[in-house]
Specification:
Layout: E1 2-7, E2 10-12, E3 18-26, E4 28-39, E5 46-51, E6 57-59, E7 67-72, E8 77-82, E9 91-103, E10 106-113, E11 117-121
Parallel strand pairs: 2-11
Antiparallel strand pairs: 1-3, 3-8, 4-5, 4-9, 5-6, 7-8, 9-10, 9-11
């Protein structure tokens, strides 16, 4: 199995900053793209930012210029630096990773999800 462990969420005032971390562990051969999604009650889960294994990143328009995604391939870890936070950034943030594993004698490629971490931006 592959587990994604997230940390760094919490309550922050508007204009503040948070740094989310997500570490993938388990029987992983290789991690490809990693990303962050967010979801609010009653709405779909939307992409916030994603990054390839080579370091190419893309962002949702609503966060571009404020958020920065990065990764440490040696640690199978992805980060999301969130600056100038706004109340509309409030959501549950989910880490995602696409990875190859070798399970029961077979190679497999799957998407994996973290448990989600709450980010609340409020005064």
């Amino acid at each position: 199995q592959v587990q994604l462990v997230e940390s760094g969420g919490g309550l922050v005032q508007p204009g503040g900053s948070l740094r989310l971390s997500c570490a993938a562990s388990g029987n992983i051969f290789r991690v490809y793209a990693m990303g962050w999604y967010r979801q609010v009650p009653g709405k779909q889960r939307d992409l916030v930012a994603a990054i390839t294994s080579g370091g190419s990143a893309n962002y949702a328009d609503s966060v571009k210029g404020r958020f920065t995604i990065s990764r440490d391939n040696a640690k199978n870890t992805v980060y999301l630096q969130m600056n100038s936070l706004k109340p509309e950034d409030t959501a549950v943030y989910y880490c995602n990773a696409n990875a190859d594993t070798f399970v029961i004698g077979r190679w497999s490629n799957n998407d994996y999800w973290g448990q989600g971490t709450q980010v609340t931006v409020s005064s």
